[in-house]
Amino acid sequence: PGVQIPDRLRAQYPDEMTIVLQHQFHSLSMDEVDQVMSVGLSFSGIPSTLIIPVAAITAFADPEVQFGLNFEVEVPQIVPLAELPAPEGDDVPSRNYDGPAEVVSLDAFRRRTPKE
After folding, report:
1. CA-to-CA distance for 40 and 29, rounded, in angstroms?
2. Domains observed in the chain
3. 20 to 30 A Cα–Cα from 13, which one of 48, 57, 78, 104?
4. Which among 16, 28, 10 has a CA at the least distance from the CA of 56?
5. What percentage of the chain carries pLDDT values higher than 70?
6. Are 49 and 65 in contact (CB under 8 A)?
7. Residues 31/33/36/38 CA torsion (nearest 10 deg)
8. CA distance 116 to 113
9. What are φ and ψ of residue 64, in 5° steps?
10. How many whole angstroms separate alpha carbon 20 and alpha carbon 23?
11. Between 33 and 66, where is the model more confident?
């Protein structure tokens, strides 16, 4: 989220893209407030500006000095509702409704328009 790259590159690299900054790049900058980096590169001779949030960077490598970092991204596990345990205790609403149902008028919540 927040990655800004040309549509043609997003179509070619929908999930992940390796960016090599070695010889031909320009306008490399870091916005420390917004935590994004920006760089100008050419892909197949077409100049492009890429804006990448720091949080979207998954690895960094500098082969010249044999240095590299991998950043693990935590992806929340989605648990289907059927697998969640049923709530217990006093916080559980009772399914036994004693007494008559209440009718609530919605007139108080409606916008009133002046009649012409």
Report:
1. 10
2. 7-70 (2.30.30.220)
3. 78
4. 16
5. 78
6. no
7. -20
8. 9
9. -60, -40
10. 9
11. 33
Per the listing, tokens 């989220």 go with 1
**C-alpha distances out from residue 105 to 3, 26, 97, Å:** 47, 64, 21
Give the type of residue at 15.
Answer: D
Chain segment 44-71, per-residue pLDDT in tens: 889 999 999 988 888 888 878 888 888 8
Token pair recorded at residue 108: 């108080």
Take residue 35 and report the two structure tokens written for it: 């935590």
- Residues in Cβ contact with 51 at an 8 Å cutoff, skipping those fewer than 6 apart: 2, 3, 4, 5, 36, 37, 38
Give CA–CA dist 74/63, Å, rounded. Answer: 26
- CA dist 38 and 46 (Å) reads 17
Place of tokens 């009649």: 115
